[in-house]
Write a structure and sequence with these properties.
The structure holds 2 protein chains of 2 kinds. Helix content of chain A is about 30%, strand content about 25%. Chain A is an alpha/beta fold. Chain B is α/β, with parallel strands linked by helices. Chain B is about 25% helix and about 30% strand. In chain B, helix 2 (about 70-80) packs across helix 5.
Chain lengths: ~325, ~260
């Protein structure tokens, strides 16, 4: 009866979100009195296994297969199913990464087990842990309860736990074998493509950021926020909808599919504060928000807020800053 | 070519949602509903794929209460050929596995070449339904798709990876795809489309009649999140608020 944490690689090293998941697993293990096991699967995941070997867990399980080199989701799902059938875990935890989103529904379907995705916390109830998840664009949260099918797959949202909260340790290593059938891979994958160069903007180094969301209204209003960013000595950033609408390039996006930033000042204009955006900026030292909607979730994160139209407030700010 | 598009009707993104007294759902009373944003991109992609292929049928499918007919009618107005309404109460459809089981049971006999859906819905945001449906139907699947290219008996798609990276995959047909926002520019319904939609068929099927598995998870309760920070709201006109804010940035936060 154990908690398996599935490690993920990022740039050949251990993914930051795996460390965060280990922190969550260590807490859950204490509350449920279950053991933990880190699981590393890959073609030749030596660096990942070495990093995982420095984290506190009851065991480190490593399984390799050259077929996992392509990153194919069907093959990885099969590998996970084999590990689950051999180890009979109670929980299978992982970070809610891009790969996780393409991967774990397959495992859920094949094993007929619940997948509680993108959770931010858990709480102990009489019947066991309940998992907390933001819903409805961040306006409400839900407590989710799995049924009796095991394992329960849980993926954790970025920064729900701190990576440094994962306690160090020296788990004993056990190697597992996999028997993967290449015919299970239904997709042909080409080589991954790097982000388009053109305007590469490193927002992560900016001390001040002016970020704009849907509230901008139209691309014609861009000068309003550009002027404010200039007056503030800030970089201009945006949420995903602004990129989807073609108003700003992807290089300026902050959020789960853009950059993660932690500036001294994050001025959010016309941004509602949906989860996908918050994960990219909740590390900011000071958040100030301007939004027409007083109930916008962004205000939950903001130290200071103005309920108003950014198209009215921003020009006034620019004026005052220039004075 | 036949493409099914799974659409979900969700509460509009603006506005307050209040949990019911027991927290089992939210009070739908005053809420304005709309088609889930990512699904509008999926519908547009389906329409464009048929156009590029020189023909085909787009079938819009939605699981939910009576009100989802409005979203289906909107899909018809934009160009879907027909629609299927899987009737069930929204508050009971909170397990993606059960929802996907029902959708798959419905689509099993349709013989679709492609099934498209938005990557996730803005209400429950579990992000699993498209892949689960594909798995149950034995189709090749991929989510986070930002471009599609139809080939002979296959489809080449661009998948979003972390940090702005992407990867092209080729899937054999039939396939199920989770479509990402921003993949295209969804068309508006034309007057002609809206009038024509009235003559197109929406078939209604009771979800409970379809083979279904018991839920693997349940939503115990919804609640309003506790505020992490006590936000100081700056009152006054735009000018007054701006003036006050600059003083705060300079003197209190010291970020200028």
């Amino acid at each position: 009866m154990e908690i398996l944490i599935l490690a993920e690689a990022h740039d050949g090293a251990l993914h930051r979100m795996t460390r965060e998941t280990v922190a969550a697993a260590q807490a859950l293990a204490r509350d449920t009195h279950l053991t933990t096991a880190l699981v590393v699967l890959g073609a030749a995941p030596n660096a990942v296994a070495d990093a995982a070997a420095t984290l506190e867990a009851d065991e480190l399980l490593v399984a390799t297969d050259p077929l996992l080199a392509s990153g194919d989701s069907d093959l990885m799902a099969e590998a996970i199913c084999q590990v689950v059938r051999a180890e009979h875990p109670t929980y299978l935890l992982a970070g809610h990464t891009y790969r996780a989103r393409d991967l774990f529904p397959r495992v859920s379907a094949r094993l007929a087990v619940p997948l509680l995705a993108d959770v931010v916390a858990y709480e102990m109830a009489t019947e066991g842990p309940r998992f907390i998840k933001p819903m409805f664009n961040g306006r409400l949260r839900a407590a989710l309860v799995p049924n009796t099918a095991r394992p329960v797959i849980v993926t954790f949202q970025a920064a729900a736990y701190a990576p440094d909260a994962a306690r160090p340790g020296t788990p004993p290593r056990r190697d597992l074998t996999l028997t993967l059938d290449p015919a299970r891979a239904r997709c042909q994958r080409e080589a991954p493509v790097a982000p388009a160069t053109g305007e590469t903007v490193d927002l992560s180094g900016a001390e001040r950021i002016v970020a704009v969301g849907r509230g901008l209204g139209s691309v014609e209003n861009l000068p309003v926020v550009r002027d404010l960013a200039k007056a503030l000595g800030a970089e201009l950033a945006c949420s995903r909808p602004v990129v989807d609408a073609g108003w700003l390039p992807q290089s300026r996006q902050v959020g789960s599919s853009g950059q993660t930033v932690a500036p001294k000042l994050y001025l959010a204009l016309g941004i509602s504060g949906a989860t996908q955006h918050l994960v990219g900026m909740k590390g900011s030292a000071h958040v100030v928000a301007v939004n027409k909607d007083p109930e916008a979730p962004i205000f939950d994160l903001a130290e200071y807020g103005v309920v108003g139209d950014l198209l009215e407030v921003a020009p006034k700010l620019t004026e005052r800053l220039r004075a | 070519m036949k493409i099914a598009v799974l659409v979900k009707q969700v509460p509009g993104r603006d506005g307050v949602l209040r949990p019911t007294a027991d927290g089992s759902w939210f009070d739908e009373g005053e809420v304005a509903f709309e088609t889930n944003e990512a699904d509008t991109y999926a519908l547009e992609e389906a329409l464009q794929l048929c156009e590029r292929a020189g023909g085909g049928e787009v079938v819009a499918v939605s699981l939910g209460p009576e009100r989802v007919q409005k979203s289906l009618r909107d899909c018809l107005a934009r160009g879907a050929g027909r629609a299927i309404h899987l009737l069930t109460e929204a508050s009971t459809a909170t397990d993606p596995y059960t929802t996907a089981t029902r959708l798959a049971a419905l689509l099993k006999t349709e013989g679709c070449d492609l099934i498209l859906a938005g990557v996730q819905s803005d209400d429950l945001s579990s992000g699993q339904t498209p892949l689960l449906v594909g798995e149950f139907l034995g189709m090749a699947t991929a989510t986070l798709i930002t471009a599609t290219e139809l080939l002979d008996g296959a489809i080449r798609v661009k998948q979003e990876l972390e940090g702005g990276w992407c990867q092209w995959l080729t899937l054999p047909l039939p396939a199920t795809l989770g479509i990402q926002t921003g993949i295209n520019r969804p068309r508006y319904p034309t007057i002609k489309g809206i009038m024509g939609a009235k003559r197109k068929a929406i078939a209604t099927v009771a979800a409970a009649e379809l083979a279904t598995a018991p839920p693997l998870q349940r939503l115990d309760h919804l609640f309003v999140p506790r505020k992490e920070k006590r936000t100081v709201m700056i009152e006054g006109s735009a000018d007054e608020a701006a003036s006050r804010l600059v003083a705060i940035l300079k003197n209190d936060l010291k970020v200028l």
